[in-house]
């Protein structure tokens, strides 16, 4: 059991999942047919025994209110624990003021009221598996001020663009934090997940607010890097950063493959989500499906290849869907031929014969659109 | 207790289901798997939830730890609201009578009169835990009230030549029941009792207490209680049900019922979003259909991995069908794995069974369906 | 079981519960120590067997998200039913555009998706007991277009100011709807609760939007009064309209008395709320309490007279509290003498010796204030 | 199953509590009311919830329909999350052994080995359903792991002269248990067993199965299992508990425990917001204290209406104390009413009892507390 308050932070404006991001906050975006992006960070927390968790969001609370509920499906005891959706209640003058520091300050009472001595902050848009029990144990033993999760990658030239990277000495002390501008291949990419005492957290939040009205929490960390004892903690296994539409596309496609997915989905570390009580999926006599992940509740009569198909999707006979991500409830009509397309929830593709995108620039079909 | 909550459902779930052999060796029949992701008892429980019947007693008896702990998680059916609940009711020790088993369907209710009193039941809905169907019990209650009946029995029209296998209700032209015959040699009607009853509780309570004292009674609804009602001239009405209904008492009928679901026009329609069947929420990733897989006429659920060929079959949660394996006309229960190149035809493969690579089980010409309950080596 | 979608509407700008209304929307305001204002309308709906309910709110969703949860404590089956908190997600240019029609239109998809043929709309700030089963039955039998709940009152000169009143013929057909400006003693005050078919509801919402960008639902009803068959349905028993601070004060004070409260709180019509798991209240050897309603979790050591005391309130020895409403978690220190004061949640009254208001103008002490 | 969920609690709740007389005539002892709004079993259940012990089996036996349906509503303790649950485990019919009662505390666990297997228990926490205390079982598990024990037993220091009433643990200087004596005539230590055990499940399973076959065993933890562990040289450690603990086995001790709560400095502290005691959520308005009421040194809960005088007493949910009535040094259980001018002194008034106007019950000089279980007329 981890004696820490969990804070799920929202993404800054460098994250932009065009299209999908217009209808819901990033944590509420559908992922791999069955999940929402927030399920991963939240399951990490509850599987680690954390039961007091705050989800801070920037805007559009509706979809998350319903998805999170009271957290029973994430194994949060509703009496002892608390899954709290926090949302800036005062009006923000301009979008640049809508940052995490603002949300922390507005909701400081809920942070102070927690009886936990530590906080663990993580954004939802980094997908990986971590046991915070271990991280906190090491954090306490080493008497560091702040522990920062990171992942060593060798594709920083093309991926994780705009993310923070850590510069560390051989003892993993962080000497500076720099933005990844795609210059170098191998980097230690920050997961933007931090472990620190609640006292220090509150101090840093106040300091950020006093330094600049536009500061994010990561900005103040960059500044106190030399001053405080900040140490990196490596994440093993699969990591995805969902901050653009192509990276969303790529992560879905990668995790289709059970070999890669088995890194993230293991039996003793379940990824919890809100069940939909869909029936099993039915394949007709004409179905031709391969290399695809298919959620429950679908009716598949057409050809599906290298796809991620969400719940309750219909693919009619004659349709050909390749390299696509079809979100829950969408309908793909008889004559549709789709390649590298992301079809948002409840969209109906019926009168369009052919849509072809590329993995680098997938075509996006809007929510509930009828095309 | 909420307004509409005065009808308490009592699900009889004590059946051994011995004709399902190994499938009921460790679980009671109502907990047997069905339809890719369900257990049989999900159907009456989901019907209750969808009909706003919020308090459900489940009368278990035989080998029921799995069934008991399964139904106790009442949030699976949304039956965990403030005044709702699924209550496991096994036989128990009492102050006066000591320890006793349930001696019949009626006795099971009689022994739980204190439960019904405590829940302030106004109507009692008696259900069976091992039938597969969708029914709106609220509509049946409406019918019960409208006809001013003392008891209402749901009936199904069966082919007259099969009527001798059922409890048959002989009714007048207003669907008032005038006679009940258990498995009549010469049936006078084709209205079979579905074993679904609505009783006004206070009256039923009296009949049950009388019946309890009768040493000659078998303490059964069909054989004792209903005939007593009729003998006393009580008003019993038939509630005609139309739609899919199946008692999956044998391996063959269990297989058939699963196969029915593959037919896109099947009457049960588990895809109906207005009457969902709720079940356990398992932690399983969506199904993966591999590069060389070949899937047709199939019902497949989450957690499955299919690398081989699946034709006219139902795959339950977390089954693995390896490359070059062939699944034909079969039902593969949860966590079963079929090895490379193995062939499974006209089988029910029980949960957790492993079929070794290259093994061949079942036969396309067999008259009966083969139950594979143990691991199969090549 | 009522075959209708429930819509809990928000109050218009004529309702202004100063002070209390600054921290949470009206439905979330604490009432009679244990409840929130919304509990009454919501319990009416769920006790009538309604399981699909939408709560529309204007602003500040946080407190309601937590109070409503998924509705289990209101007896809503979480699979079959749905308690949905709806909140205008697009930014409103000006406060005058923040009206119910706007919220209905933005969330029209959720209204259309409901499989219920009828809607029952009611605001939270009218407190009374009604069985919608009976209302809907009569509505359907009489083939009216719209049924409007009303209460005959004889104190319209001083109460219910600003509320709609119904002018009806002897068959209770509504011939016009007029605002109560306090001119007459006896009036048929509209509960602003309407029963109508979903089809007509959607039609009227669209018509309102097309008529004026500032119209509320009640505005369009006033217009279609002659055109449609609108009929009044009388509410029996206790009714309170909580639209000002004095009316809030008065309703709390009235319902202290078991004789009046027994009209609203009856055994087969429970008022559901979110439990707090507070211990019973402890009275010390020095406590002097009379004519008061006291919620659980309090420690009473001082003098309490004619008060409504919320959960987990402390009244220290020496304190004298008369004619007050003390909201949950407040602390009344030793030397405080309060009369006709409303103390908001978690406020600490410690250094002020005396505060005296009047029932017509009770003094308000702000949330979490330390005075 | 979540990470921290590998410790499964098993609450022994089969006791008759016969020294509580009429209070346990219709309910098992763990369901007896306590502390204004609670039932005794709320304490171990809330302790489980607060200690993140998410799977709880409740082993019931005697007259338990109320207890069963009470604990089945696991949302009262927040134990209704996805992989959580309170499971009622009465004795049941099994494939091999047929129907059987629980023959002892250990046998109750043995008969539910299939349940523990199914829940994938790693540790088993054995609790009693009729003790009142607050304990962090997660801390006890930490202690168990840290000391490398095979089993850990929670112990309480009792006055040495009372030690002969308890099961006494004789320990070495490291709190390793070297001997266990049940109610020793000459106690060597004052460490009394609280009947709270943590076992490593796999090992316990073996001991239980051995014990089951032993015809000479009484199938009891204290008398059989613990001595067997000790005989085998297993490492048993004592976990010292400090704080309030009470076994309310008699009317007097039940009264005392209620009275303890009136003391603002009582050790149990039910007001602690960090360790709340959860219970049923009843529909009751806040308490009303009338114009001429006089309330001092009292614990009063929602639904009560007080018009008379209440001194040094505990009022449970929905009790009514009429004008001029006097309640002194008493405990009034739910829905009881005391008529105008009646006087109640040193009594426990059972639930739903009516005391007529002007009646006088109890005596301020009585040695024992009077249990009033039937209506009293003047």
What does this protein look like?
The complex is a heterotetramer, with 2 copies of chain A (371 residues) and 2 copies of chain B (378 residues). Chain A has 371 residues and is α/β, with parallel strands linked by helices. Chain A folds into 2 domains: 4-261, Spore Coat Polysaccharide Biosynthesis Protein SpsA, Chain A, CATH 3.90.550; 282-365, UDP N-Acetylglucosamine Acyltransferase, domain 1 (3 Solenoid). Chain A has 9 helices and 28 strands. In chain A, the strands form 7 sheets. In chain A, strands 5-4-1-6-11-8-12 form a 7-stranded mixed sheet, with helices on both faces. The termini of chain A are far apart. Chain B has 378 residues and is an alpha/beta fold. Chain B folds into 2 domains: 7-261, Spore Coat Polysaccharide Biosynthesis Protein SpsA, Chain A, CATH 3.90.550; 288-372, 3 Solenoid (UDP N-Acetylglucosamine Acyltransferase, domain 1), CATH 2.160.10. In chain B, 19% of the residues lie in helices and 28% in strands. Chain B contains 8 helices and 26 strands. In chain B, the strands form 6 sheets. In chain B, strands 15, 17, 19, 20, 22, 23, 25 and 26 form an 8-stranded parallel sheet that branches. Chain B has a 7-stranded mixed sheet with strand order 5-4-1-6-11-8-12. Chain B has a 5-stranded parallel sheet with strand order 14-16-18-21-24, with no helix packed on it. In chain B, strand 2 and strand 3 form a beta hairpin. The longest helix of chain B has 13 residues, at 201-213. Chain B is elongated, with a radius of gyration of 22 Å. Classes of the chains: A alpha/beta (371), B alpha/beta (378). Chains A, C: This is Glucose-1-phosphate adenylyltransferase. Chains A, C: Keywords: Glycogen biosynthesis, Nucleotidyltransferase, Transferase.
- Give the proportion of residues in helices of chain A: 10-25%
Tell me about the largest β-sheet of chain A: 7 strands, mixed
Oligomer state equals heterotetramer
**What is the mean predicted local confidence, pLDDT of chain A?**
93
CATH superfamily of the largest domain in chain A: Spore Coat Polysaccharide Biosynthesis Protein SpsA, Chain A
Strand content of chain B: 25-35%
End-to-end Cα distance of chain A: 50 Å
Main sheet makeup of chain B:
8 strands, parallel
How many domains make up the coordinates of chain B?
2
Helix content range of chain B: 10-25%
Give me the number of helical elements of chain B: 8
Compute the number of strand runs of chain B: 26
| CATH architectural group of the largest domain in chain A | Alpha-Beta Complex
**What strand order characterises the main sheet of chain A?**
5-4-1-6-11-8-12
Most extensive chain contact?
A: C-D, 37 and 36 residues
| Uncertain runs of chain A | none
- Count all strands of chain A and give the number: 28
CATH topology value of the largest domain in chain B:
Spore Coat Polysaccharide Biosynthesis Protein SpsA, Chain A
